Amino acid sequence: MSIKPDDIIIKNPNIAQRLFEERMLVITAKDSMLHRFNEVGTHIWQILDNNLSVKEICNSIKENFEGFDPIKDYNDIISFLDTLEKKHLIMISKSD
Amino acid sequence: MKLKSISQNVNFLASKKNIPLSTLIEITYKCNHKCYYCYQKHYNSYKEIPYKKWCNILEQLSSAGTLYLTFSGGEPFLRNDFLKIVEYARKLKFGISIITNGTLLNKKIIKFLSDINILDIGISFHASYEHLHDFLCGINGGFNLARKNLEACLNAGIKTIIKHTVSSLNFGEFIKLKKLAKKTGALFECDCFVLPLEPLGCSPYSLSQTKFISFVKKTFLFKHPICITKNQIKEKLHCDAGRSVSGIRPNGDLLPCILLPIVFGNLLQKPFNEIWHSKIANTFRQKEKKLSSECIKCNMNKYCSRCHGIAFWESGNWRGKAKSLCLFANSVKSLKLFR
Fold first, then answer.
1. Whether A91 contacts chain B with CB within 8 A
2. In Å, what is the CA distance from B110 to each residue of A23, A46, B75, B146, B223?
3. Which of A54, B143, B165, B294 could form a disulfide with B130 if both were Cys (CB 3.0 to 4.6 A apart)?
4. Could B93 and A36 be called an inter-chain contact, meaning their C-beta atoms sit closer than 8 Å?
5. Which residues in chain B are contacts of A19 at CB distance < 8 A?
6. Distance CA B11, CA B70 (A)
C-alpha cells in the first residue's frame, strides 16, 4: 500500500514518548521497543499532533530545514512514514 | 568495538547528563499484605501526596526527561485515586510499569490498564503454590487472586511479569515460577537479594553461599566463561542512581534510587529540577564516583553485582561492601563463569 500526498497521517495515541536531548524517544506498548528519531524525524513526529497530510508534512520540512530536495526528500519522508506505519507508530487515513 | 543498542545509548547519555530517564514512585506504603521480608513496615505513618500535587510532579518529571515511570508501593491499588494518577501520567505520555501483589485487580481495572496501554504490570509471587505464597504474604487467598489476575491481565493483552524474590524460605520456587511464566505467556523476573528488616545487618532470609551457588548455576545464561575487561568491571561497580534513575516516596521525598534512602529534597517543598540539580544531589554524584577502596581494590569485584542500596541497608556505608553482595560474588567466582 503506497502512501500518497493527500493521505492523512495519524499518530498512534497509545505510545509513550519524550523529547530527549532534542530528539524524540518513542515506545510502543505492544513490544516495548524504544525508537529514537533524528532531527527531521523529531520534527515530523511533533507536527503530527495536528493530523497532517503527507503534502503538509513535506511543506513543513521545506519551511524548517534548508536545502529541501523535492524528489529525494519526499521519498525519504515516505520511507520514514512507511517505517512508522510498519512499527504501528502511526495510522494512515487514505485520501481515496 | 561493540555496538550499543538505542536503549543502551539513551541510558548512557541520560546517565552522563543527569537526565532522570527512569523514575520509580512508591505511591503509597499502605498494603493489604504482611510479607515476611517487607522493609517498609515502619513507614505506614508517611503522609501521602494528594492527587493534584502528583499531577504537578508528573508534569515536572516529564519536563525533566523522564520517560519510564514505575509505580509500586505498598500496594499501589490501595490508593483510591491511583487509576486517576496513572491516567494523568499516560496523558503526559510516560511509559508506565506497575508493580502490585495482584489481589486488588478486577475486570474493570484490567480493562482500563489495557485501554490506556501501560507498558507492563508486574505481579509478585512468593511461591508457585497457594500454601507457601499465602503463608509468606500473611494473607489467605492471596495466591489464588494473584494467579487469577495474572491470567486476566494476560488475556487483556497486557505484558505481565511474574516478579519473585528468592529467599531462604522459598528457595527453589524460582524454577517453578519460571515454568509457570512460560506456560501462561508471562515474563519472569527474579532477584536473589533480600533487604534487611532493620538497617545494619543481613536479612534473616538472605541466601547462604550454597544457595547462591545453586541459584547462579540454575539461572546463569552463558554456557562459556565470560571475558570481562577492566573498564567493564569499573562500570559494573557503579550505577545510574541519582543520574538516569530516581525514586520518589509517597510523601514526596526524592531519592537517587528507591533502595537508597539519601533524601535529595522533598517535592512538596521544592521543584524537581531545583532538588535534582542541588548541591546535595551533585555531592552524591561526586561521591558515587569514589567507592570505598575495599571494593575498588577487591579481587572479587569482577564477580560483584554491586548495589549501593543493599550496601547501605546492610552496612550503613553505601559506598562500601555488603555481606550478601560479597557472598554472591564468591559464589559466582566458584563457578568459574568469568575469565
1. no
2. 33, 31, 16, 13, 39
3. B143
4. no
5. 65
6. 16
Helix (H, G, I), strand (E, B) or coil at B307: coil
CA of B95 vs chain A CAs: smallest distance (Å) = 5
Sign of CA pseudo-dihedral B150, B117, B245, B75: negative
Asked if the C-beta of A38 comes within 8 angstroms of chain B's C-beta atoms, the answer is: no
Dmax (CA) of chain A: 39
Nearest Cα to A26, choosing from B272, B276, B155, B6?
B6
CB A27 within 8 A of CB B69: no
> Interhelix angle for B142-155 vs B173-184, to 10°?
30
Per the CB < 8 Å rule, is B7 touching A34?
yes
Comparing CA positions, the residue from B251, B259, B247 lying closest to residue B311 is B259
pLDDT tens profile A44-62: 999 999 899 999 999 999 9
The stretch B59-84 carries a mean pLDDT of: 97
Question: Where residue B1 falls among pLDDT bands split at 50, 70, 90?
Answer: very low
- Radius of gyration from C-alpha coordinates of chain A: 13
Facing residue for B93 by CB, picked from A16, A32, A36: A16
Size of interface A-B (CB pairs under 8 A): 50
CA distance B167 to B192: 7
Q: Running DSSP on this structure, what letter comes out for residue B290?
A: S
Contacts of B21 in chain A (CB under 8 A): 20
Least confident span in B7-21, B123-137, B188-202? B188-202
Q: Residue A92 CB: number of other CB atoms within 10 A?
A: 17
Say what the pTM is. Answer: 0.93
